[in-house]
Amino acid sequence: MCMLTEAKEELAKALSVAVQVGEQEALASIEYPKNEFGDLASTIAFSLAKAQKRNPVQIANEIEAKIKLPPAFEKAVATGPYLNFFFSKEFFAKIASAAASAKKKLAKKKKEKVLIEFPSVNPNKPWHMGHLRNALLGDSVSRLLEHAGFVVEREDYIDDLGLQVAQSFWGYKNFPEKPPSNEKFDHWLGKQYVKVSAEAEKPEINEQVRKILHEMEKGGSKTSKDARALVEKCVLAQYQTSFAYGIFHDVLIFESDIAHVIFKEGMERIKKSDRIVQETQGKNAGCLVAKMSGAEFEGMENPDKILIRSDGTATYTGKDVIFHLWKAGLLKGDFAYSEFVSQPNGKMAYKSANGGKKMKFGNADILVNVIGMEQSYPQKVVAQVVHMVAEEGKKKPQLVHLAYEHAALPDVKFSGREGTWIGYTADELLAEGIKRAAEKIKPEITGTEREKIASAIASGAIRFSFLKTCADKKIIFEWDRALSMEGDSAPYVIYAHARCGGILEKAAGRTFGKANGYAYSKEEMALLKKILQFDETTSRAAEEYRPHMLCDYLLDLASAFNKFYTTSPILAEGIDENTASARLEIVKATKKKLADGLELLGIKALEKM
RNA sequence: GCCCCCAUAGUUUAACGGAUAGAAUGCUGGCCUCCGAAGCCGGUGAUCGGCGUUCGAAUCGCCGUGGGGGCGCCA
Predict the structure, then answer these.
(1) B73 C1' – A296 CA distance, angstroms?
(2) Domain that holds residue A49
């Protein structure tokens, strides 16, 4: 168990012994005071005062006098109605050594499997900055969940049967231009799509597009195979972007495979639910309809949701429900898979594919969808309908909509059709970032090492700038903000890490005895307390699916380290061995936590920059 | 009409119902002979409005204001 949790629990126990209060209540009353007040605090006197109709200040004073503190604590001080507790020297020493020597901390394995879907970009254009936000959220939440002990499967849904793809395919066939070798295919296809979508306004073109779409849906034809090949080529190009940012997947599920492999069984399954009814009259006559219930659906003019149309075809919601039944392992049918691309992290990404081999994807307990905020309503519908269908089985999957507000330009939204993304792709952003980062790297670093470091810094800076803002806030894109290398940024955190590395490198030749009875300074204690909070912060960030909490934490940690750094020399003349030893331990501990935290955000911690 | 999200220094933002609302950036004044100045120290400056709940509200509730999104047998 982590030291902080343990200390809190011991403290709660001591409180419950000192006064008439349950351990749980005591534990809930513990919080973090500001530095000047103490290391941990309790507000228990407030609730006791209310129950006993007494003065909380007096109660706090009584507890201060009465409490028998566990060894992690040195003293208790009542400040008005607040109770503040101070960690003991021994406890601080333990924080440093525990964190410095800890092996890669793996949380207890959890039984649940999480299937997380992101970013599901239409396969006919490059990723723009909006898609990037989605992918970065999905990627770092995946890392956090893994760290928290879940089995995590990263899935990408590829809608290869959409109208956009049909249009792009029409353009590919009918426009004279062929893709040039000096441009990424997704960029080329995306620009071409802008032209096609204008062209497709014409009725005769639109009709041809519809015909293509129909053939794609039916499958088996040359057209459908060629269209799928086009899609895969585009996704492969998109994935080059993904890899450059350190974003990886386990499996890609194509809409065409959903349509051909699980759709029929899914429909049958839906029909079996008694909360889903076949309408025989009214305006939905002939349709299969889910009867929605609950607060969010009351007061709606028509809370019924059509899953299957009167002509027997499924609506978008219906299809989505079926896909989620598969994700939750509620269908017998399963896809076959083949290799899609070997990723730079050493893992293969698989794709659903006709004629592939059987593998074990899906069948998850928690289904997370990283999808824009505007889809809240349809996501609620899908979740509820999946539960209606699942009710009859044993398993009840948990559906999570990880909603985020979009990243956009000051005056326009990103639109594939209008091409407003041109000049704002994730590739261009990274290229600009690399250019800016390269200028700041130490002159003695040269060649490929310099290039590697520049791209690590650029990708890190961008990742951080997107992730540090809470997902439910809009991001108005600005180059300077997205590529910031100072202040609240990844380079700030990486820089602290590199400073740690520098010290340890310089200290490498010398040997120090174990520090003994060292009296920590204000800066040292502040830093150690931050280190102590690593586990709690990462597990909360995972539970709440909020990576920005980790960004915030890392900035605090780096800042606490920088303050320590300027006040606490280690290898300078006149520093005694005991002090040097104690401080080196702190540096090791800090470096480890900075590196681990950055990794959970998909950012490389560098030794030099 | 109904539903959802957002509103905090000039700007970008953080804050399990707890103490003096924390950062960054900007502007401004300092700090490299000393483990890396992508850094450190100081100054400046904020909870959209009203009512309520509470010992205590940026946070919870109600009513507003401003901005964004959603509510199809569309995709």
Answers:
(1) 22
(2) 3-87
Q: Is the pTM of this model over 0.90?
A: yes
Q: Does one domain contain both A206 and A317? A: yes
3-class DSSP assignment, residue A146 = helix
Same domain, A484 and A398: no
Q: Flag whether A100 is in a domain.
A: no
Answer yes or no: is A281 within a domain.
Answer: no
pLDDT, tens digit, 9 for 90 and up, residues A233-243? 999 999 999 99
Phi and psi at A302, nearest 5°, equal -140, 95
Tell whether A462 and A389 lie within a shared domain. no
Q: Are A400 and A366 contacting, i.e. CB atoms less than 8 angstroms apart?
A: yes
ipTM for this model: 0.97
Check if residue A333 sits with its Cβ under 7 angstroms from strand B: no
> For A173-215, how does the pLDDT look when each residue is reduced to its tens digit (9 = 90+)?
999 989 999 999 999 999 999 999 999 989 999 999 999 999 9
CA triple A322-A323-A329, angle to 5 deg: 95
- CA dist A99 and A535 (Å) reads 10
- Full DSSP string of A112-129: -EEEEE-----TTS--BH
Tell me the one-letter amino acid at A554: L
CATH of the domain at A31: 3.30.1360.70
Residues 293-322 of A with CB under 7 A from strand B: 296, 299-302, 306, 309-311, 313, 315-317
In the chain, the amino acid numbered A470 is: C
**A77 strand-pairing partners:** A84
